[in-house]
């Protein structure tokens, strides 16, 4: 993956060394504890468990963001590449794409979906259309999941942007409304479809960006390997020694690999309709 020297997105806010935050009082008390436990076990997106609340203003950014380290530059390039891909794809369908913001933080910050903690892993908050990322998660991916290569990290960012694409299309709000009326097992099953579609959208992005970023077969293998390592079955087997399918929220290792590959193989967003597939 050749990313150095490319355009970085203007839609980044770096809170790692202080600065303003704006958020929404959301999950608290026992609810936040549950979310954090999920993050500790799964280390990945917990969007399906986050909700909205009352806006809390705690300051404002001091000015335009400045890219001042390699990690931030990498994230900025990947985010810019998602903008390059999804903007034209939306235009082809007669739609307008509004890119998400991405907040970098260290340890914890405030989001419009409640508190953001490093244990939660990266997540997308639809209430402020922002991806939240503690960059220490890259170290966690390498140390705990054995993820390797820049593109494995890019896949995680592209997955979260995939949730923003769902939000832009109105899918995320519809699904969250449905899940609120379901029993837990059915809600979890619907969450799996949401997550697998985001994996497929990450594959769509990889297909469209592969020439600009000079992606190799090894890069794609790194992404597929990461998808396998963060499948619900793999994570449950590692953390508790057994697999409980009714509690899956993101999909199995095989499903996550297959749907990323589906998007990458076809380059067609219509191929990512996980909601009407009976084999999920």
3D architecture notes:
By secondary structure, this protein is of the alpha/beta class. Helix content is 50%, strand content 11%. The protein contains 9 helices and 8 strands. Mean pLDDT is 82; it is low at 19-62.
Could you provide a short overview of the structure?
Helix content is 50%, strand content 11%. With 280 residues, it is of the alpha/beta class.
From N to C, what is the helix and strand string? EEHEHEEEEEHHHHHHH
Instruction: State the secondary-structure class.
Output: alpha/beta
User: Shape, please?
Assistant: globular
Tell me about the biggest sheet?
4 strands, mixed
User: What's the Cα radius of gyration?
Assistant: 17 Å
What is the mean pLDDT?
82
**Into which percentage range does the β-strand content fall?**
5-15%
Q: What is the first-to-last residue Cα distance?
A: 31 Å
SS element count, helices: 9
**How many structural domains are formed by the residues?**
1
* Low-confidence sequence ranges: 19-62
With strands numbered from the N-terminus, the spatial order across the biggest sheet is 1-4-8-7
């Amino acid at each position: 993956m050749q990313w150095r020297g490319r355009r970085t997105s203007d839609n980044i806010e770096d809170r790692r060394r202080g600065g303003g935050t704006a958020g929404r009082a959301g999950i608290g008390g026992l609810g936040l504890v549950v979310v954090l436990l999920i993050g500790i076990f799964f280390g990945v997106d917990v969007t399906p468990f986050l909700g909205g609340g009352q806006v809390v203003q705690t300051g404002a950014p001091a000015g335009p963001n400045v890219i001042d380290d390699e990690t931030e530059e990498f994230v900025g390039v990947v985010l810019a590449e998602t903008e390059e891909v999804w903007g034209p794809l939306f235009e082809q369908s007669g739609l307008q794409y509004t890119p998400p913001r991405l907040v970098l933080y260290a340890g914890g910050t405030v989001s419009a979906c409640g508190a953001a903690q490093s244990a939660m892993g990266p997540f997308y908050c639809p209430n402020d259309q922002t991806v939240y990322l503690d960059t220490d998660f890259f170290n966690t991916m390498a140390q705990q999941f054995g993820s390797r290569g820049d593109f494995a990290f890019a896949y995680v960012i592209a997955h979260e942007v995939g949730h923003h694409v769902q939000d832009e299309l109105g899918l995320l709000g519809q699904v969250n409304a449905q899940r609120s009326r379901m029993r837990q097992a059915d809600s979890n099953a619907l969450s799996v479809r949401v997550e697998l579609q985001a994996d497929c959208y990450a594959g769509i992005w990889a297909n469209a960006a592969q020439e600009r970023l000079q992606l190799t077969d090894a890069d794609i293998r790194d992404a597929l390997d990461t998808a396998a390592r963060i499948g619900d079955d793999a994570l449950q087997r590692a953390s508790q020694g057994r697999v409980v399918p009714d509690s899956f929220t993101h999909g199995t290792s095989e499903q996550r690999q297959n749907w990323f590959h589906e998007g990458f193989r076809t380059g067609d967003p219509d191929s990512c309709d996980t909601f009407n597939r009976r084999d999920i």
